[in-house]
Amino acid sequence: MRTMVKIGIVAAAAGLGIAACHVGGGYTVGGTVTGLQGSGLVLQNNSGDNLRPGTSGSFVFTSSIDQGGAYSVTVLTQPSGQSCVVHNGSGTVGTADITNVVVTCTQPGRFAYVVNQGSNSISAYSIDAANGTLSPVSGSPFASTGTTPVAAVVDPNGTYLYVANHASNNVSVFAIDSTTGALSSAGEPIAAGNGPFAVLVDPADQFLYVANMTDNTVSVFAIESGGTAAPISGSPFAVGNQPTSMKTDPGGNFLYVTDFADGTVAAFSIETGAGSIAAIGGSPFGSGAGALAITIDPTGTLAYVANETAKTIAGYSINTGTGELAALSGFPLSTGSSPEAVTVDPAGRYLYAANVISANELTSFSITPSTGAVTRASSVGVGTFPLCVVIDPSGQFAYVANEDADTVSVLSIDSITGALAAVGTFAAGSQPRSIAID
After folding, report:
1. pTM value?
2. Cβ-count burial of 202 within 10 angstroms (0-12 exposed, 13-18 middle, 19+ buried)?
């Protein structure tokens, strides 16, 4: 497996402190806002009880709801310059406060961070909002505080960049300058397991998850002040054979892990406010040989997996209540080359996959929401050996890390058809492998 050999792999909390407040015998409804930058956000519960969060963080509606009562959290007014979406927003109150509502606020991408495994560095760029082009941030590239960086993620509040260092078995933490995009070390790297290969932060910005490929585990850390993190009780958790990628659903209720050697997707429920994971019924779910990368649509109802060795893309529906996966009709989809990366745009209308029609191309597919079926829209050449594709939060641009070309390709996305068009190619460091957008 080329992807693994190139980096020397042998193939073979606490919650946010929302206090209980049982006014009149009822229960409160609350959760977390992330990414809030603009002003004017107004939330409602059951078409009333207006709440105006001024910053990211925890929130609780004033009015309580008795057991058996319904709740429905919506956005009444969007903040200036941003779009906020509610997850886990509706249901029926049981015998405890509701604390897991997640309100995710985004804006067009401002900065892009590319981890270069060959040069142990992170290339940082500012993004031109008009055309998606990249300009190096002053001081870029930034030295990694670990060796062989392979994956990166920006936390939902855009404050920190976490970088998984495969060879040094740790995760670097960098503070992001909100004005310039420059990186500065936020302390000593976080010790992970052996061979960390993927990293993510949950949608509520409470927990850091690290897939340790050599150990066949996922380490879970509670994020603390200053971006540091401490392992939770029970971590690390066994997840399968050679975990390579991870995604949560948009509400952070379930974790999905691709296991390369098993050709499966392992699925776990996430304990609210604690971060611990437990295998759900039916897990692991069959995918295909060399299950390498997974993406989940913004509704949390569809998942797609790139199977590198099998040369297929697997597609699933997601049971939003249990987290179980069910194969979609027409999948797995045979590809002409070994797929290396997949992602869905922020609106959930298009699937993008690298190396699926032929090598060194990015292909867009339109998604039929009711069935999850995909139809090819376009294919555009990128650089040699594209390993990662991300879409900026506005859905206007795609960014591709080309490992053998030491470049990043930028493509525009047609808002009507999803068709791709080349914008430009930009120099990165040696062997760029992953991209994170702030």
Report:
1. 0.92
2. buried
Cis before 369? omega within 30: no
Pairing of strands 29-34, 98-106: parallel
Which residues neighbour 163 within 8 Å (Cβ) at sequence distance 6 or greater? 115, 122, 144, 146, 149, 151, 152, 171, 172, 173, 174, 199
CA distance 150 to 430: 12
Residue 37 zone, left/alpha/beta (φ > 0; ψ -120 to 50; rest): alpha
Pick the CATH number of 23-106 from 3.40.50, 2.40.10, 3.30.70, 2.60.40: 2.60.40
**Pair 389, 362: CB distance under 8 Å:** yes
Distance set, CA 282 to CA 56, 268, 373 (Å)? 36, 10, 23
d(CA 330, CA 179): 46
CA distances to 38, 91, 319, 416 from 105, in Å? 9, 21, 25, 23
Peptide bond into 141 cis (omega under 30): yes
**How many other CB atoms are there within 10 angstroms of residue 203's CB atom?**
23
284: preceding bond cis by omega (within 30 degrees): yes
CA dist 316 and 333 (Å) reads 12
Q: What is the largest CA-CA distance in the chain?
A: 64
Single-letter amino acid code for the residue at 72: S
Superfamily of structural domain 107-437: YVTN repeat-like/Quinoprotein amine dehydrogenase (2.130.10.10)
The angle formed by the CA atoms of residues 14, 185 and 200, to the nearest 5 degrees, is: 45
Residues in the chain: 438
Whether a cis peptide bond, with omega within 30° of 0, leads into 332 is yes
Q: Which residues pair with 334 in a beta bridge?
A: 312
Q: Where are the domains of the chain?
A: 23-106, 107-437
Per-residue tens of pLDDT for the chain, all 438 residues:
444 434 433 333 333 333 344 444 699 999 999 999 999 999 999 999 999 999 999 999 999 999 999 999 999 999 999 999 999 999 999 999 999 999 999 999 999 999 999 999 999 999 999 999 999 999 999 999 999 999 999 999 999 999 999 999 999 999 999 999 999 999 999 999 999 999 999 999 999 999 999 999 999 999 998 999 999 999 999 999 999 999 999 999 999 999 999 999 999 999 999 999 999 999 999 999 999 999 999 999 999 999 999 999 999 999 999 999 999 999 999 999 999 999 999 999 999 999 988 899 999 999 999 999 999 999 999 999 999 999 999 999 999 999 999 999 999 999 899 999 999 999 999 999 999 999
**Residue 49 corresponds to which tokens in the numbers above?**
């009880």
